[in-house]
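Hi L.,

You mentioned the student needs an example of a multi-chain input paired with its predicted structure. This one should do, with 517 residues in total across all chains.
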Amino acid sequence: MLEIKSLRKTYGGQGRTVEALRDITLTVEDGQFVCVVGPSGCGKTTLLRCLGGLLSPTSGEVKVAGQTVTGPPDGLAIVFQEYGRSLFPWLRVAENIELPLKSKGVAKAERRQLVDESLKAVGLGDAGKAYPWQLSGGMQQRVAIARAIAFQPKVLLMDEPFAAVDAQTRADLEDLVRTVWQRFGMTMLFVTHDIDEAVYLGQRVVVLSASPTSVLENLDIDLSDERDQLKTRSEARFVELRSHVYARIQEAKGVAAA
Amino acid sequence: MSRVLSRTGLLVGLPVVLLVTWWFASAGSKSFYQPPLETIIKVFPDTWTGARFKSDVFPSLIRLFIGYGLAVLIGITLGVLIGANRRLRSLLEPLLEFLRAIPPPVLVPILILVAGIGNPTKVLVIVVGGLWPVLLNTVEGVRGVDEVLSDTCRSYRIGGWLRLRTFVLRAASPQIVVGARQALSISIIMMVIGELLGATNGLGYTVVEFQRGFQIPEMWSGVFVLGLLGVLLSLAFTLVERRVLNWYHGARAAERSGH
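Structure written out for the whole complex:
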């Protein structure tokens, strides 16, 4: 579903170019849940923006559903980290969710139904009339997720969506994302700097190196499909996997520092 | 209830005190140029209702509304175009700064030379004065739209008219409103100035006519009319602003309370 081949991205400054991504090759199968984790500043967001068609690669190729990405591809939605800035503060929650559907040309009755369903799916059944700023941070991110669900994307990209919410809310939202993925079956690419989160959520974890960035490891997460905040996180296999990822990232940082 | 009372008290308190002071200080004044306030208020109804409302107040208001409306409309349209286009912005910014720095009243003689002394010129005078604050504030507002929201629009392929209406204009609206408010008071000033030169009716014209005819209480009452007009329009503006920027004040309050 997602194919990235030798993706390279440099930002040109005055006389100084920064190489954000050196060589990324990565494939995500249809319906898979993949987490991308890496040291901070390694260009995770750049990678996601290239996939979302918000940035064009310097070289290499990015394909979504077999189509080379030249602009925001059809059937792809992004949930941004800055929930407070990705919802329209002048629109009510329901209108925020409805807006992309309007531009997609969905009929009014169907729009209303999709808005209702997606709000229910994120546990905000009766928040439609509120304004985003009347909600807590965690609830705002739920609205952003509901907006993505209502859009019915084939691919959902999430850019450190829970980096700015408190730990308890975060656990709830992680479980919500798993539930949404299992229910709607879209392909998920979830970018995070949190190793535990990556291992807990993904079917596969892609470990990125420090900048200049390449793929260090593709790690299958052989945990059961039913994940539970308490049980899964205390399983021996979970601890092993997270320790492994942690070691790889430390290693990557060490190389960068040397 | 007591809060409402104290707020209204604060609002009208000072004007009432000033008027009462004026009333007593000017009572029994024999000066021709400073008639007692009582006389001014007495001539007020006869001066401004009836025929003069139709012949002078009404034409002024019509010119004001058309001129102000055009200033806001043109200001927003050009402001969106310039604000959304970086090249155009760098090209036009020095010119705009220059044009803004010219006090609009000095343009009135030029406009009269070019366009005559008819109604279109009087409207044009208002547009020329009111346009700049709207235009420059709109440019700022459009330039400052949030990048994450902009990315959100791109990624959901919200474009064209829908994007303009539900994103760009709304995001820039706090600044557009600031510009529109400035433009409103400038428009009133420009309306009067336009009527001082070569006019045959209107509020500004009438006040000057009273002065020339030594109808001093009537002249004073004309100043009151203009002041009241300003207050009423500003009040109406506040009502509109509250509707348009309801979200903005709410979001700001939520931010302050550390939501």
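You could point out the following to them. The radius of gyration of chain B is 23 Å. The first helix of chain B runs from residue 2 to 26.

Best wishes,
N.
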